[in-house]
Predict the structure.
Amino acid sequence: LSSFAPSSAQTSTTNGLSFSTTESYFMDVVFSPDGLYIYGVTGDEQAEVLDRENQVLKIDAVTFAVVDMYQLEDGFDAFDLKITADGKTLYTAGLNSGDIAKIKTAKMTLVSAISTQTGYLVDGAISPDENYAYYSAGAGNVVKVSLAGDMSIVSEIQVSDLNRSIYATAVSLDGTTGYFVDYQFANPSTPRIMKV
């Protein structure tokens, strides 16, 4: 086992493995399909102490060295991260901003960014054909995004009561149906699964 925090934190070594003494401030991480890289996103306040707010980092999976990064706009508040099957494209969504950014991994360059009306994007899922992404959002909303070209919003719909929060997303194998889990703020032990 070894751990990595996006900082110049103190580390100790045991049996040749490096262990960080500082917590990681990643909001989400994904591996490249070939296993060579780890991609991580940092949010706003969580990473402020490490001077790595709103960054998408490309990290060598063996050495844990940061080999490249993309700096998101201030206030993006990156929270969710997804990668395509070929490892060439990342999609990150902002929690409080409600923005979605499309980034090419080869040189960590921005393709495009779009804003949703809903905001508070918690979790996303990419359809198997990689034509669409579905995002669960705050106040019972669901967002469907076309991933073609510069991306575009297909629909934003409210599927649950305002006092319930949607926090998990999955897509059917044929890509035609999104599944979402919500819960009530006052009673988190009452989750529901919804199909859209």
